[in-house]
Design goal:
Elements: H1 12-23, E1 26-27, H2 39-49, H3 63-77, E2 87-90, H4 92-104, E3 110-115, H5 120-127, E4 131-136, E5 138-140, E6 143-145, H6 148-154, E7 159-165, H7 177-189, E8 193-197, E9 222-227, H8 228-231, E10 240-243, H9 246-259, H10 265-280, H11 283-304, E11 317-321, H12 329-340, E12 342-343, E13 345-346, E14 362-366, H13 371-384
Parallel strand pairs: 1-12, 3-4, 3-7, 7-8, 8-9
Antiparallel strand pairs: 2-10, 5-6, 9-10, 11-14, 13-14
The structure holds 4'-deoxy-4'-aminopyridoxal-5'-phosphate and glutamine.
Residues 31, 92-94, 118, 165, 169, 197, 199, 227, 229, 235, 240 line the site of 4'-deoxy-4'-aminopyridoxal-5'-phosphate.
């Protein structure tokens, strides 16, 4: 007998891409870059394909890749994670997030997500047996903010962990050191773990990224999740990682070896080469500045169409106020898709079903698209208004 149907069917991201394609809309829904990955990465892949990387590799990840991951975060963290005991390569950030939940949560624990939140967090936490509690971030004229008093108020003796994401999907917030210090203090006071999703760490436009694990006392209690997906524009290569204390890493790896065993080996090998090169070149800086220009193009087009955008300080996304388009964000996204031919995702999709009603009427648009795609979206918005 089949178990009860899943709470969610097709993901909102896959659904939006499918519908945008069917309707010939400009797809600013799903967050994936539509340009070629950097040449250094493609040529590294061509090279590794002729070498001996076609079989299982070491389950924790290729040593060379783990070493360069550790080296690449050393300055921001203020310590160098031990590649052998603290770095694990996974199948995208998604697997790292799944494993963090599976490794840390015990049935009946409470886990906090900061809403709006990437939908995967609640799903993997629930599967691990957690009761998921949403704590809202707050919209402000300069972007979205974390109020650590609200976070503290949501903690109970059963709280086990907090999931945080900075730079943030979907709001474009880059949490400040002060905000994260507040969060760290809550974690220390209630003896919590923090799962910090930092996949957009290289994509900040006007304020620095602060890794949670860099704050005093947080190295031992933080799982830092990263990925090559966004930094190297290869969301399909499925290579991510988790950085955590040796004790937590042992637990993560115990799950990893029975879930995927090892991340795809040719892609790990090619990414190691590209990350080594990126350390030396200005690659990360150029990537951020190119995305910043794209953010400006899309934000200006939204503003001109009367869909006032929030300031995005990092990441791939900007939120547009859709109160003048339709009474709810879902209806607004539908109208923009079918009448204007521009696909975005209703902000309400990033809230738990229990908090959905409190989601502002806004639609998320991705600006990680080629200039001509953004220009076409701008043209359609302009023609509509
Ligand atoms: N975290 C965030 C905040 C994301 O936006 C995404 C998806 N783009 C992921 C994790 C998943 O990353 P990956 O594709 O590396 O699994
Ligand atoms: N993270 C991407 C987004 O927010 C989507 C990832 C996915 O489709 N799995 O759009």
């Amino acid at each position: 007998r089949l178990p009860a149907p899943p709470t969610s069917g097709e993901s909102i991201f896959a659904e939006t891409t499918r519908r945008a394609t069917q309707l010939g809309a400009v797809n600013l829904g799903q967050g994936f870059p539509d340009w070629e990955p950097p040449e250094v990465l493609r040529s590294a892949l061509r090279d590794v394909l002729t070498s001996d990387v076609h079989q299982y590799g070491p389950p924790p990840g290729f040593p060379r890749l783990r070493a360069v991951i550790a080296a690449s975060v050393k300055d921001a963290l203020g310590f160098c994670p031990d590649p052998d005991t603290e770095v694990t390569v996974t199948v995208g950030a998604s697997e790292a997030l799944y494993e963090a939940a599976a490794a840390l949560v015990e049935r009946g624990d409470e886990a906090i997500v900061l809403e709006p939140a990437y939908d995967l967090y609640a799903e993997v936490l629930k599967r691990a047996g957690a009761h998921v509690i949403g704590v809202p971030l707050e919209a402000s004229p300069t972007g979205w903010r974390l109020d650590s008093d609200r976070l503290r108020a949501a903690c109970t003796p059963r709280t086990k962990l907090i999931v945080v994401n900075t730079p943030h999907n979907p709001t474009g917030a880059v949490l400040t050191r002060e905000e994260l210090k507040g969060l760290a203090q809550v974690a220390l006071d209630f003896d919590l773990f923090v799962v910090s999703d930092e996949v957009y760490d290289r994509l900040t436009f006007d304020r620095p990224h602060v890794p949670v694990a860099s704050l005093p006392g947080m190295r031992e209690r933080t799982v830092t999740v990263g990925a090559a997906s966004k930094t190297f524009s290869v969301t399909g290569w499925r290579v991510g990682w988790a950085i955590a204390s040796p004790e937590v890493t042992r637990r993560l790896r115990a799950v990893h070896q029975f879930v995927t065993f090892v991340a795809p080996t040719p892609f790990q090998a090619a990414i190691a080469v590209a990350m080594e090169a990126a350390q030396e070149s200005g690659f990360y800086r150029e990537l951020a500045s190119s995305l910043r220009a794209k953010r400006d193009v899309l934000s200006n087009a939204l503003k001109a169409a009367g869909l006032s955008p929030t300031s995005a300080h990092g990441g791939y996304f900007v939120l547009a106020d859709t109160t003048t388009v339709a009474p709810t964000a879902t209806e607004a996204a539908e109208r923009l898709l079918s009448e204007v031919g521009v696909a975005g995702i209703a902000l309400s999709a990033f809230y738990l079903p229990t908090s959905g009603a409190s989601a502002p009427n806004a639609v998320r648009f991705a600006f990680c698209k080629r200039d001509e795609v953004l220009d076409e979206a701008a043209r359609r918005l302009d023609a509509w208004r």
